[in-house]
Specification:
6 helices; globular
Length: 112
């Protein structure tokens, strides 16, 4: 309960576009997920509107990718749990995966 209250307060006070970050039906915190995505994925993927698309990242733009109809929470969960030859093998806890997925799903249905 305390974590949820703290997250809600942080969301309202610190995050522009807080309504979009709150739009998730699954487990996980979009607020924490944003920080994890930027820290763990942001060197190779575009994961935040704050990043500049410099063309130097080897991975796909995950904000654009998640907008595609076939990308679901289940698809993201599978992707995060599967090793890929060109990606580092980042071992996420269940909570970290939930948070990253909750954050990425906030881009589902959002304009480009």
């Amino acid at each position: 309960m305390g974590r949820m209250l703290l997250m809600a307060a942080m969301l309202v006070m610190a995050v522009p576009g807080a309504g979009a970050l709150a739009a998730t039906d699954g487990p996980g915190s979009p607020v924490y997920g944003r920080g994890l995505a930027v820290d763990l994925c942001g060197d190779c993927h575009l994961v935040s509107p704050d990043q500049s698309p410099d063309g130097m990242r080897p991975g796909p733009d995950l904000m654009e990718r998640v907008r595609q109809p076939e990308i679901t929470e289940l698809a993201l969960r599978s992707y995060l749990r599967t090793t890929h030859p060109v990606m580092p093998n980042i071992m996420l806890t269940q909570e970290q995966a939930d948070d990253i997925i909750a954050y990425l799903m906030t881009f589902k249905g959002s304009p480009k």
